[in-house]
């Protein structure tokens, strides 16, 4: 995926937003397509940015005019100006853009792919840029309030909400949010639970303003209990209540893991979302063998705990991976199942190996607590049981087989 | 000063070059571009427009800050070429908007160090997808034609056009092949799909060249110096296509016999629908099109000129101002919209009752089955079949159904209608599809009356009607 898309996904989902994208025609076409497909059914508006505008030096004026045109609609309350490779190379001076237009706040979000590298990191850039501008860090902190940082499946958000309420958390803001106010309110939180390891810039910003940071996530039995306890400690909640919920939830996860006790197989996890390692941890806890995992992001401080656990359990981890690294791992390790990027997914299926696209399958299911464990392990169990069909299809199309069911 | 663009729906010449060159099986394309330009064209969008998991013969240089800000891209291009060189594989290096921004021109470097690798400057900051495709095909001929004089093989036909990112091309291609065979022609090449690079030298030996699309290919067509025909839509264009092709191939009688047989077979459903009650709805059908030029013009010609439907608009994508289109749709909505995903979004914003039929990119759609052509006789039949089936669907949705829960809701004492309210109701009804206007009006009337009773009103005003719309 183009890195800039990560930022667009965060920005286009905000209510009352109209993105102004500073990009050339080819970039506009592609990013608009994936935004419409994966982010929001909303228009992307842009000034024309071709040779004529670049050599004529009219880019800033064109941007300002486009912002004004967008702002004529009084229902638009937020205009993020997103600049990608070509516009960033040409150079945009932020001070030449307005801060407000009509009823809308205007904010420059720089997302050049040659610099940001991956789309998870662009999500971090977008969230941090929003928070820096809008976070009400100057206001008094709300006691027992928490920011949950990281895009999650809706059902996960509901489960998290219920559990946090049980342990006495009084208010929760989830980021990236659907309302600009989420970013304002986030500034008043006491603590931030960061679920994904690539939100480094956003976390730094919280830390600078004295917001406590809680790492990890409620995936797997031990981590779930730990996560609940860490939140309790950070917000100074009633420890008996916290401990009771922590034990109850981890027990529920153990029950699920027990149900999948018969699961065995060799799995490779190689996505580009940046949140692969906790998924690997869950698979390892369920007794699966995961000899190799890779991700598009760099090794981060926030991901260190997972890195340590996985390394200890024998998983080779590849950061900032290339497709070739993943392909080589598939050939070398002969897994039963590959959970990978689209290209790797196809590569594995071409070899008759069971495979699914990480993004569409892991991100479209709950992942946290017992519900998440059951959903993910249920899917994996189904794939491992059905792995013969991947071989049959491969042999049909590339071998001598003439029927899918054995004669 | 530049214009404002809403939802860019035409790609750039960079996309054109990848879509064109990667369609050749023995070519490998290196894009001098940041990683996003590779991911979007080669995987993320390709997956959803062409149902291809990823382009295997496509590699980016993955430009980073280092190349952009200081070193330039020569070194990384050299490394990439070294890794990919292989006998029997033609490497083509294409520039992207970003590499053009930093002024990367590799022509001389390639000539010195990799004389077999060719550089295609995509001019991505100046040309759109169709201009780019046109130039890319011409460039292939200029760079790879063997230069021998043409030795035309009588009876042969080659098709130019089918490429990645051409909406619905598998079905249209299958139909064109069928028409060529019917007219007595023998297919030589389909270029660039179904071809190897060296086939470019053999195109000039075809007796006739078919350009599938009006959007691109004519520059190559001209260089080949052979008679050219275009992919036809509807009845007349297709008949002319068959007769003209047969004439050029010197087999008029085969062409005539084929048309006669078509009327009895493939085309017969149109005669049957025409004689049935279905065609009587056609004059009431209001449709709009926004698509690439061939489709926009072809749909209008067939559905409006030949079938008598009302064409509210037929826009060519690259000329369409989506902001103006979106505003236009707010006041007039066609019953059928042949369009792109952005049109589907604008219709959804209005909660329009319009039936959307995908007819162009951008938009995620699988069109790989061979039975959904828009071109030729098969296309004409398929389009009518789609439209009539949609009309049946609309009818179905408006026919009354006994709902037990609604019993007892029938008003005992009907409220009065004031003139303004009645006028407003009539205007609203006019916007509904013609064949369902009566039932729609009746339904609206009932709803307004029910609401008025619930609110304890004796007269129905314009406000009451607006609340039930």
UniProtKB/TrEMBL annotation, chain A:
<protein>
    <submittedName>
        <fullName>Chlorophyllide a reductase subunit Y</fullName>
        <ecNumber>1.3.7.15</ecNumber>
    </submittedName>
</protein>
<keyword id="KW-0560">Oxidoreductase</keyword>
<dbReference type="GO" id="GO:0015979">
    <property type="term" value="P:photosynthesis"/>
</dbReference>
<dbReference type="Pfam" id="PF00148">
    <property type="entry name" value="Oxidored_nitro"/>
</dbReference>
<keyword id="KW-1133">Transmembrane helix</keyword>
<feature type="transmembrane region" description="Helical">
    <location>
        <begin position="367"/>
        <end position="384"/>
    </location>
</feature>
<dbReference type="InterPro" id="IPR050293">
    <property type="entry name" value="LIPOR_BchN/ChlN"/>
</dbReference>
<keyword id="KW-0812">Transmembrane</keyword>
<dbReference type="InterPro" id="IPR000510">
    <property type="entry name" value="Nase/OxRdtase_comp1"/>
</dbReference>
<keyword id="KW-0602">Photosynthesis</keyword>
<keyword id="KW-0149">Chlorophyll biosynthesis</keyword>
<dbReference type="InterPro" id="IPR010245">
    <property type="entry name" value="BchY"/>
</dbReference>
<dbReference type="GO" id="GO:0016020">
    <property type="term" value="C:membrane"/>
</dbReference>
<feature type="domain" description="Nitrogenase/oxidoreductase component 1">
    <location>
        <begin position="2"/>
        <end position="377"/>
    </location>
</feature>
<keyword id="KW-0472">Membrane</keyword>
<dbReference type="GO" id="GO:0030494">
    <property type="term" value="P:bacteriochlorophyll biosynthetic process"/>
</dbReference>
<dbReference type="GO" id="GO:0016731">
    <property type="term" value="F:oxidoreductase activity, acting on iron-sulfur proteins as donors, NAD or NADP as acceptor"/>
</dbReference>
Automatic annotation (TrEMBL), chain B:
<dbReference type="InterPro" id="IPR000510">
    <property type="entry name" value="Nase/OxRdtase_comp1"/>
</dbReference>
<comment type="pathway">
    <text>Porphyrin-containing compound metabolism; bacteriochlorophyll biosynthesis.</text>
</comment>
<keyword id="KW-0149">Chlorophyll biosynthesis</keyword>
<dbReference type="InterPro" id="IPR050152">
    <property type="entry name" value="ChlB/BchB/BchZ"/>
</dbReference>
<dbReference type="GO" id="GO:0030494">
    <property type="term" value="P:bacteriochlorophyll biosynthetic process"/>
</dbReference>
<dbReference type="InterPro" id="IPR010244">
    <property type="entry name" value="BchZ"/>
</dbReference>
<dbReference type="InterPro" id="IPR016209">
    <property type="entry name" value="Protochlorophyllide_Rdtase"/>
</dbReference>
<keyword id="KW-0602">Photosynthesis</keyword>
<protein>
    <submittedName>
        <fullName>Chlorophyllide a reductase subunit Z</fullName>
        <ecNumber>1.3.7.15</ecNumber>
    </submittedName>
</protein>
<dbReference type="Pfam" id="PF00148">
    <property type="entry name" value="Oxidored_nitro"/>
</dbReference>
<dbReference type="GO" id="GO:0015979">
    <property type="term" value="P:photosynthesis"/>
</dbReference>
<keyword id="KW-0560">Oxidoreductase</keyword>
<keyword id="KW-0077">Bacteriochlorophyll biosynthesis</keyword>
<feature type="domain" description="Nitrogenase/oxidoreductase component 1">
    <location>
        <begin position="14"/>
        <end position="391"/>
    </location>
</feature>
<dbReference type="GO" id="GO:0016730">
    <property type="term" value="F:oxidoreductase activity, acting on iron-sulfur proteins as donors"/>
</dbReference>
């Amino acid at each position: 995926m183009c890195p800039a898309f990560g930022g667009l996904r965060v920005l286009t989902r905000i209510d009352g937003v109209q993105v102004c994208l500073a990009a050339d025609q080819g970039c506009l076409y592609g990013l608009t397509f994936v935004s419409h497909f994966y982010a929001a059914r909303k228009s992307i508006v842009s000034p024309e940015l071709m040779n004529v505008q670049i050599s004529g030096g009219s880019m800033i004026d064109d941007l300002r005019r486009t912002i004004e045109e967008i702002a004529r609609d009084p229902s638009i309350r937020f205009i993020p100006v997103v600049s990608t490779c070509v516009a960033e190379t040409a150079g945009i001076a932020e001070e030449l853009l307005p801060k407000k237009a009509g009823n809308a706040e205007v904010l420059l979000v720089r997302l050049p792919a040659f610099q940001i590298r991956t789309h998870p990191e662009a999500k971090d850039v977008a969230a941090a840029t929003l928070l820096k501008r809008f976070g009400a860090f100057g206001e008094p902190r709300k006691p027992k309030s928490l920011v949950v940082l990281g895009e999650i499946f809706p059902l996960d958000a509901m489960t998290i909400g219920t559990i946090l309420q049980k342990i006495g958390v009084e208010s929760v803001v989830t980021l990236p949010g659907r309302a600009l106010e989420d970013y304002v309110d986030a500034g008043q939180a006491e603590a931030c639970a960061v679920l994904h390891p690539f939100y480094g810039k956003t976390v730094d910003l919280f830390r600078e303003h004295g917001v406590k940071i809680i790492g990890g996530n409620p995936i797997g039995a031990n981590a779930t209990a730990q996560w609940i306890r860490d939140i309790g400690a950070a917000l100074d909640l009633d420890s008996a209540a916290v401990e009771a919920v922590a034990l109850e939830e981890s027990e529920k996860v153990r029950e699920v893991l027990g149900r999948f006790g018969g699961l065995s197989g060799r799995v490779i996890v190689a996505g580009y979302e940046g949140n692969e390692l906790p998924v690997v941890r869950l698979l390892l806890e369920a007794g699966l063998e995961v000899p190799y995992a890779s991700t598009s992001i760099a090794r981060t401080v926030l991901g260190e705990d997972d890195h340590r656990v996985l390394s200890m359990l024998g998983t080779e981890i590849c950061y900032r991976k290339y497709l070739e690294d993943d392909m080589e791992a598939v050939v070398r390790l002969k897994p039963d199942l590959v959970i990978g990027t689209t290209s790797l997914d196809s590569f594995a299926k071409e070899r008759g190996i069971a495979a699914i696209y990480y993004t569409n399958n892991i991100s479209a299911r709950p992942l946290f607590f017992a519900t998440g464990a059951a959903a993910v392990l249920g899917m994996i169990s189904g794939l491992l049981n059905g792995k013969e069909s991947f071989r049959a299809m491969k042999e049909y199309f590339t071998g001598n087989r003439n029927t899918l069911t054995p004669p | 000063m530049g214009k404002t663009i809403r939802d860019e729906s035409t790609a750039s010449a960079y996309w054109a070059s990848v879509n064109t060159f990667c369609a050749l099986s023995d070519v490998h394309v290196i894009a001098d571009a940041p990683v996003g330009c590779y991911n979007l064209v080669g995987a993320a969008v390709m997956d959803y427009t062409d149902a291809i998991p990823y382009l295997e013969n496509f590699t980016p240089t993955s430009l980073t800050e280092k190349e952009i800000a200081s070193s330039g891209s020569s070194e990384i291009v050299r490394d990439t070429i070294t890794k990919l060189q292989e006998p029997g594989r033609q490497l083509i290096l294409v520039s992207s908007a970003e590499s053009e921004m930093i002024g990367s021109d590799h022509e001389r470097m390639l000539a010195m160090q990799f004389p077999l690798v060719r550089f295609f400057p995509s001019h991505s900051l100046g040309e759109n997808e169709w201009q780019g495709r046109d130039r890319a095909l011409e460039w292939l001929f200029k760079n790879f034609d063997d230069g021998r004089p043409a030795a035309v093989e009588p009876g042969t036909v080659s098709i130019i056009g089918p490429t990645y990112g051409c909406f619905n091309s598998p079905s249209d291609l299958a139909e064109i092949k069928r028409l060529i065979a019917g007219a007595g022609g023998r297919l030589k090449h389909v270029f660039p799909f179904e071809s190897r690079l060296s086939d470019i030298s053999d195109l000039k030996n075809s007796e006739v060249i078919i350009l599938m699309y009006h959007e691109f290919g004519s520059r190559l067509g001209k260089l080949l110096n052979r008679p050219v025909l275009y992919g036809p839509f509807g009845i007349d264009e297709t008949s002319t296509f068959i007769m003209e092709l047969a004439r050029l191939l010197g087999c008029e009688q085969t062409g005539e016999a084929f048309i006669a047989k078509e009327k009895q077979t493939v085309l017969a459903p149109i005669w049957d629908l025409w004689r049935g009650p279905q065609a009587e709805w056609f004059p009431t059908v209001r449709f709009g099109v926004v698509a690439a030029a061939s489709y926009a013009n072809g749909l209008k010609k067939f559905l409006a000129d030949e079938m008598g439907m009302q064409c509210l608009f037929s826009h060519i994508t690259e000329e369409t101002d989506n902001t103006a289109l979106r505003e236009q749709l707010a006041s007039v909505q066609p019953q059928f919209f042949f369009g792109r995903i952005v049109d589907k979004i604008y219709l959804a914003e209005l909660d329009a009752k319009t039936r959307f039929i995908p007819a162009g990119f951008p938009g995620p759609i699988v069109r790989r089955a061979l039975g959904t052509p828009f071109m030729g006789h098969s296309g004409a039949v398929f389009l009518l079949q789609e439209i009539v089936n949609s009309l049946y669907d609309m009818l179905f949705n408006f026919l009354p159904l006994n709902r037990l829960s609604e019993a007892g809701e029938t008003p005992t004492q009907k409220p009065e209608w004031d003139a303004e309210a009645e006028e407003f109701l009539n205007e609203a009804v006019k916007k509904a599809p013609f064949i369902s206007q009566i039932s729609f009006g009746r339904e609206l009337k009932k709803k307004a009356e029910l609401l008025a009773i619930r609110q304890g009103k004796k007269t129905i005003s314009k406000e009451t009607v607006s609340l039930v719309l």
